[in-house]
Amino acid sequence: MLFCAVMKKTGKISKKKPAAAIPKMSSKKGAAKKASARGKEKKPNTDPVRVAGILAGLDAMYPDAVCELTHENPFQLLIATILSAQCTDVRVNQVTASLFKKYRTAKDFAAASSAELEQEIRPTGFFRNKTKSVIGASKSLVENFGSVVPRTMEEILTLPGVARKTGNVVLGVGYGIAVGVVVDTHVIRLSNRLDLTHHAEPKKIEQDLMQILPKEKWIQFSHQLIWHGRRVCVARKPRCGDCRIEPLCYAKDKTSWSSPESAPRR
Questions:
Q1: What pLDDT, on a 0 to 100 scale, did the predictor assign at position 3?
Q2: Is 215 part of the annotated catalytic residue set?
Q3: 9 has a pLDDT exceeding 70
Q4: What is the mean pLDDT of residues 104-130?
Q5: Which of 165, 208, 217, 242 is catalytic?
Q6: Could you confirm whether 165 is annotated as catalytic?
Q7: What is the pLDDT of residue 42?
Q8: How far, in Å, CA of 134 to CA of 145, rounded?
Q9: Distance between CA atoms of residues 191 and 222, nearest Å
Q10: Cα separation of 84 and 224, whole Å?
Q11: Pick from 7, 71, 105, 196: most CB atoms within 10 A?
Q12: Angle made by CA atoms 87, 122, 143, in degrees to the nearest 5
């Protein structure tokens, strides 16, 4: 009854004011805060003396490090590198041992049966996409470059299935032309582990390495780091006891373990 009387007298129902909402940070302020946080992050240790020490250590351990894909010319190297995506060099070499006997030139691969080639390269994985890339790249070479692998990154990147990593391998190993640094899974892992970069993207890692490495080391460095990642600084249990650059490394998972399978000290 009291409620009805109040309604008749005022004609209104008293409502409690809601609590003031907490203002949201604007997108601009949020972006600025994130940028500020990134700026405070510890930068990679690219001190020239330290980098020189790492290079000297790699030279001592792997003076003869080379690309381990078996090939006789830049074209075979191109095909082998395309096949090496998500596959070991050992497996690729097993496949190309017979493949390069059957298909000897770009024209041979360009005219290949997709169905047959798929089965021949099947052990390398992702064989359907790789078949398209191999045949497509070969046709492009025949039609646009006189069946010769080009000597510039701009031209080689026009080939189907060819990205910058493949271009760096072919130009660096096949022609001795240093236009960049090969960045594969080992280089990504070890360059971060050695605190030479904090990036995960291959393009950004390559740019970081190109800035701190002498140009004459661009080709050899990637081979040495790949060898080191396969022989000593393995992902699951690094053999730090066999590493010449261990004093310059402060990775959190360092061990004192060594193995007869590790690269010998020189």
A1: 44
A2: no
A3: no
A4: 97
A5: 165
A6: yes
A7: 81
A8: 15
A9: 10
A10: 18
A11: 196
A12: 90
Kindly state the tokens that stand for 265.
């000290």
Q: By percentage, how much of the chain surpasses pLDDT 70?
A: 81
Query: What pLDDT is attached to residue 176?
Result: 97
pTM as predicted: 0.80
Reply yes or no on whether the pLDDT at 103 is more than 80.
yes
Give 167's contacts (C-beta < 8 A, 6+ positions apart): 153, 156, 157, 179, 180
Ramachandran bin of 125, using left for φ above 0, alpha for ψ from -120 to 50, beta for the remaining angles: left
In order of their start, the domains of the chain are: 74-162 (1.10.340.30), 185-248 (1.10.1670.10)
Considering the candidates 89, 107, 184, 254, report the single residue annotated as catalytic: 184
